[in-house]
Amino acid sequence: MAATYAVVNQKGGVGKTTTAVNVAACAAMSGQKVLLVDADPQGNATSGLGIDRGALDQCIYDLLTADGVSMEPFELFPEVVVPTSIDNLAVVPATINLAGASVVLVNAIARETKLRQALQEAYERYDLIIIDTAPSLGLLTMNSLTAVQEILIPIQCEYYALEGLSQLLEVIHLVQAQLNPSLRIGGVVLTMYDARTNLAEDVEEEVRNNFPGRVFETVIPRNVRLAEAPSYGVPAVVYDKLCAGSRAYWRLYQEVFEDA
Amino acid sequence: MAATYAVVNQKGGVGKTTTAVNVAACAAMSGQKVLLVDADPQGNATSGLGIDRGALDQCIYDLLTADGVSMEPFELFPEVVVPTSIDNLAVVPATINLAGASVVLVNAIARETKLRQALQEAYERYDLIIIDTAPSLGLLTMNSLTAVQEILIPIQCEYYALEGLSQLLEVIHLVQAQLNPSLRIGGVVLTMYDARTNLAEDVEEEVRNNFPGRVFETVIPRNVRLAEAPSYGVPAVVYDKLCAGSRAYWRLYQEVFEDA
Ligand SMILES: Nc1ncnc2c1ncn2[C@@H]1O[C@H](COP(=O)(O)OP(=O)(O)OP(=O)(O)O)[C@@H](O)[C@H]1O
Ligand SMILES: Nc1ncnc2c1ncn2[C@@H]1O[C@H](COP(=O)(O)OP(=O)(O)OP(=O)(O)O)[C@@H](O)[C@H]1O
Ligand SMILES: [Mg+2]
Ligand SMILES: [Mg+2]
């Protein structure tokens, strides 16, 4: 049974995609069989791994909206998943079609469990499944929270990023109570830490006080190489193995998985 | 009739709220009567202007979901709008309740025009109305695009921020064709420009090529004072008038409004 993680925070631009892509790559490069699921209509995880979204016939949208009559969602899975340039790393891609999924699913039965149903076989085939989510707590993110057992919460070391945490925790409790009792918070990752500012220190202190024992030791520094890598279609840990950002993501991978 | 702007980009963390709050403050400090509408359930614009969200009885949610039977939405407006510490600047605040609006409105008649209806009187009362939107192209953002005549598009000088532009333009064309024919793009604002990196230069060049003549000359630099200001509940142009970020927002204000 795969270890399953969703990377979630409704605040925008906090490093969800960057965390999902780089942690997935570290796991794949360590020999784990990894599936990255892109559950964000922006499709940044898809393009951040070098996949041309325009060339795709199908994507996660088709898995979520399969009516289960002509074909079960999990039967579609093999047609939707695509390989990447990294051994052991495959992706369920997202295209702009995904933006239409919440409207299509609004009256569907068990609409929050569509992704879990679609990944039915994947749970047996992979060692690790990581889901990148959109900056929202809507139906797509509910699907992601219902499909996994652990949550990774990236928090940018800035003031606005603190504000949404209570809202996020409320939704997590809701999902635990009504949709996925085994869901738990795997941990909080501090991102874009700029050691030159007091702001980052203040936010780090506040986050560690709010989440005692659940904030990873590893802090991801602000590092432009992390922002450059997507334009080359590879994760930073491939683009520039030795930069501060990549080294931090390797430390995070070890802290999250090897200590687990 | 007020000049009306929506600050829109579905990519998260690109500086929408920071732009809305600081441009609104510049306008108010220049003597214009300004209304800032927070159409994002995160409510960052509300707290970024020092308003305690927990102490609010009503917010934009109540305007959008008023059934028009017991009370017209625009009649509710005076009860919902709150003053700020800045003269001439008032806010229609957002609380977490707003997250429920799209579900409530899904079957409402003319659901995309609820905000326009609610602001009916405000159009006559203010010189400028600025709407801060969520990182999404859903119903709340459709409401914002239907309620204004101009769009400001902040673009972070990073690769992922480029990817969503064609999706955004498609939605804008859809709104122009079906909901708001007078909608036009007021301009694109480059944000978080870090002159030390090639990435920013590359992205700037690409954006200026994609949007000839529609990108403001003023570029907002990455400046930690912009990120510090929200924790004091005031815009950066009040928190630290002379920092590079504030000076850039004053230049932007002049370029957007005084040249118009
Ligand atoms: N540690 C870092 N240092 C510098 N830049 C970073 C870092 N992490 C992410 N970035 C860049 O910051 C931007 C936001 O990161 P990212 O897109 O991963 O956030 P996100 O939470 O997935 O955003 P969204 O909410 O839109 O999905 C991107 O341009 C990314 O390349
Ligand atoms: N020019 C800048 N320099 C440095 N920090 C900035 C700048 N502009 C915004 N910030 C900070 O970056 C973060 C993201 O900005 P902001 O919240 O305004 O973006 P947004 O697009 O409104 O995000 P969301 O998509 O979540 O609504 C915030 O912590 C903000 O304080
Ligand atoms: Mg993302
Ligand atoms: Mg915002």
Write the layout of secondary structure elements.
The structure is a homodimer.
Chain A (H helix, E strand, L loop, with lengths): L2 E5 L8 H14 L4 E6 L4 H5 L11 H6 L7 H8 L1 E2 L5 E4 L8 H5 L8 H5 L3 H4 L2 E6 L5 H9 L2 E7 L2 H5 L1 H14 L5 E10 L4 H13 L4 E7 L2 H5 L7 H4 L4 H15 L2
Parallel strand pairs in A: 1-5, 1-6, 2-4, 2-5, 6-7, 7-8
Antiparallel strand pairs in A: 3-4
Helix pairs in contact in A: 1-14
The complex binds adenosine-5'-triphosphate (2 copies) and magnesium ion (2 copies).
One magnesium ion binds next to helix 1 of chain A.
Q: What order do the strands of the largest sheet of chain A run in, or round the barrel if closed? A: 3-4-2-5-1-6-7-8
Give the overall silhouette of chain A: globular
The number of helical runs of chain A is: 14
Q: Which runs of chain A of at least 5 residues are low in confidence (pLDDT < 50)?
A: none
Q: Which structural class do you get from the secondary structure elements of chain A? A: alpha/beta
Helix content of chain A: 40-55%
Distance between the termini of chain A: 15 Å
Oligomeric state: homodimer
How confident is the prediction overall: mean pLDDT of chain A?
Answer: 95
Query: Largest protein interface?
Result: A-B, 38 and 39 residues
Strand content of chain A: 15-25%
Largest sheet of chain A: 8 strands, mixed
User: How large, in whole angstroms, is the Cα Rg of chain A?
Assistant: 17 Å
